[in-house]
Queue: 4 jobs
Job 1
Amino acid sequence: MTAPANTLVAPRPPRVRPRRRGHTAAIRALGPLGLLAVWWIASATGILSKDVLASPAQVISAVGELWDNGQLSDALATSLTRSGAGLVIGLTAGLTLGVVTGFTRLGDELLDSSIQTLRTIPFLALVPLFMVWFGINETAKILLIAVATTFPMYVSTYGGVRNADSKLVEAMRSFGMSRLAIVREVVLPGALPSLLAGLRLSMTLSVIALIAAEEINATAGIGYLMAQAQSYARTDILAVCILIYGLLGLTADAVVRLLERALMPWRGAAQGATR
């Protein structure tokens, strides 16, 4: 049974409401600012004592103290070097293994099951073993970060490569394009959303792994500052270190967002049209 013709209405196209510049950023800032206000009020009213957590003013004072004596800049440089080196190794390994196993049947059969088994092992469980193998030097710290960041990149690359358009790949082969050229010109561009998702996860994990790595008898870095602050019960410096770790993770996520806008501008346009 069909509906009467007079009950039908003309379809309405979706209305796009353009936002002013900075409107999204202002909304995103409401959550952190709210937490900061609660922290400030709790410290000012005595609900939160200094022994539990220093006030925001004391934390700001600690930042100035650490920056003036050079400890903060040195610790940041050391930690960023560790995290960056491990991240580069992990991304390279994950991307290479993901392409090999995702694009070739032999690579899938030989490597994927072993890599998936290793992926289930928590990277924190490798800390004692790495200390035995590599000692307590920088090698153990960097490799721990590399291991933690390899598997998210591998899984994302593997999935993106496997979902490549098989008809397009076969067409390129029929035109005589080599496997390496197909991967470079067809497969990787098609897998770009998956690659960026893997990059985001890997960059976030590089910060988490950095925290664990700097527990391996570190003598420099943000983790070393935390250990020293713990010894002297300096909750203001502990809060500074925790906030730095959080800002590093937030910065990593922002970098990936900028890459997404630069490499996939159509995604931002599509999201804006649906709001």
Note: Residues 71-103 form the longest helix (33 residues).
Job 2
Amino acid sequence: MPNLIRADWYKLRKSKAFILSSLLSFISALGMNLISYWIGQGQMAAELGSLTFSLSDLFILTLLGSFLAGSFICGDFEHRTIQDAISRGHSRFKVMLSKAIVYFIATAVLLLPYIVITSIAFSTGEKFSTPYAASVFLQILDNKSDIPFDAESLLKLIAVMLTLLAVYAARLSICILSSFVLKKSSLVVGIGFGGTMLLDQSLGLGNNLPTVAKLFSYTPFASGYTVVTLDASAGELFKATAVSLAFIALMLAVSYSAFRKSEMK
């Protein structure tokens, strides 16, 4: 399987879709930080802060992650790359797992600009604003608790970032399932992006219902998992990570089951 992973990663990182997605992620992360800074410094009207929604990690990772799943996994079905790998003797489980691992690596790369740029901005100690609440990075920049930038906060920052990476990987794991079930990039993008954003909006309304909120607390779509901050306890970070990893395992198991039973054309 290592050979499959290396081959998939080499192909993905050379693709125009991945290069373009990485560039867009960098531009969005930079733009989000600048808008937060300008509003915090009074150089931009707070009303314009709504612009950060379309630049936020939540929006960009959901959009680009869905697009990459359709391009990478569904594209391999269309070009018979997956079929060829199976005909060469690779099991369906290894093929599916290789795609998933490389996809999650790509997700981490897309999140990297937000991690690096926000960490640098946070270390300056400048005043930032939180025009869009549902963003871990904006919450960190705002730093309402006035947490100093020292070795302890740096370790906590790393823990928060790793937790967030697990949450986003889990949220996007539905794209892996839909890719192996539907094999159509347009449908995968629609489900991954449109479905997730719609679910987020619905959960915002459902938080007033204790039963609904309790049910979704066992999924990475719970609102609290995408806004973990430096104030979060170790227990909260552990729960978010554990729920996300369990959800990923479930999605991969269902994906493999569907892929194993599907016909290869």
Note: The chain has ten helices and no strands.
Job 3
Amino acid sequence: MTDDPAVLITRDDVDPAVAVLTLNRPARYNALTTELKTDLLAAVEDLGKAEDVRALVLTGAGKAFCVGQDLGEHAEALRVDPSTAFDTVTEHYNPIVAELADMDFPVVAAINGPCVGAGLGFALACDLRIAAAGLKFSTAFTGIGLTADSGLSASLAHAVGVARATELLLLGEPFTAEDAQAWGLVRAVVPPEEVVPAAMELARRLAAGPTKAYAEVKRGIRLGAVSALPDVLAAEGAAQARLATTSDHADAVEAFLAKRRPTFRGR
């Protein structure tokens, strides 16, 4: 452990409704120790409950986004007791991914450098992604005799299709930010120094939008990816009924009729 916090939480100076969550082990490319995972889970849980947050940016300190599990710590856990070495999946990885995916506001991943293993799982749990030009992604799991975790078995297949996801997970071959953009994994590829500013600009745009509608969009997409059409139609109808009672919807309809831009307040 060091004196530096394993994660940093800040607010945007331009729009305090935008929170920034930074993985903070730059010397180790933000490899995931128990300390970092524990602090990250606590941070996403707290931010998810914050009533004044309307968008979140997730990024990494230094030259990497996140290279996945710290294998030094993992090797020690295997030496102690292999039967408990993967308790971290249920204790840390699964709830972190679930919290990121279930946020009631949009989450933008600012992928500033290498993004590997669970780091890729965290990035795909976000709603939108901005990546640094030339950076490398990798699933990496089979290279150390493992299968995917952190939701990648589903999120990668949903993002790029079953055939490509199978290839990426079986072979573990690196792919670039430019590949990721061509496959639809990332929204934009920008120079490394522009990744966080571009993500912040996108997050500010989202924070000024209809937050409750965004939450329903996220729920609808997750349901639609795994459910039959009748269930999706029923869920959409229920969601529209909930949104019908929001002031954002009522005000936006009046703004349309008055030929002015709506102002969304997340209510």
Note: The beta strands are 7-11, 18-23, 55-60, 107-111, 115-116, 128-132, 136-138, 175-176, 188-190.
Job 4
Amino acid sequence: MPEQTASASPDIPADRRAGSAARSAPEPKPDSAVVRDALGVGIAVGLSGFAFGVTSAGAGLSVLQTCALSLLVFTGASQFALVGALAAGGNPLAAAAGAFFLGVRNAFYGLRLSQLLRLPGPVRPLAAQWVIDETTAVALAQPTRRSARIGFTVTGLTLYALWNLTTFAGALGAEALGDTNAWGLDAAGPAVFLALLAPMLRTTTERTVAGLAVVLGLGFLPVLPAGVPVLVAALAAPAVLWLEGRKITGRRKGSDR
């Protein structure tokens, strides 16, 4: 017969089993602390919507088109990629494709968050609009489902409201700024995105993917139409993972000899 586990063994007193279970359970986090952290992320990132509004208006999009992007797309990296490619004279289809592939990662976030949050069915379509880098990071950092739900909701609500308000303000203020290229605001979006991404690159594989993506993107920038280098840079991830798999397979074969 298989050995009985400690939690099921009749030889262990009930009070000791209860104590062991309590120690293994995650320690709850105060709601106020979760709200504070979520507000900090939402406000810090939401203010960068002003840069997007200015950049989008400088690329030739109207105030209505700019606000529609923030309301409907609501993923900063994809939005900046789209308007950046259009501003560089790129083909609209290539620009949209680059923005789309950058946004695909949110679908994978959604798979993880659906298991973590377990939201009611009617709420899920609305919550899906808020599945982005920041809400995912805040939710996954919480120790309990209650804290994850609070963190996701507060971050999403704060960021969505502030991002759209600052987008509108930036689009309106673009005319007062004059030539937006002279201000260098087109670099604000990528700078914010890199600032959010850099702390997440903790392993050698992740840093290698990021470095190769930069090399590919910059290398093909002079020879490919605007928007296409982003698609080429996306090949960095499967290329590095393939090499890592080859190394692991080689080590296994070497150990079997």
Note: The CA atoms of residues 248 and 254 lie 10 Å apart.
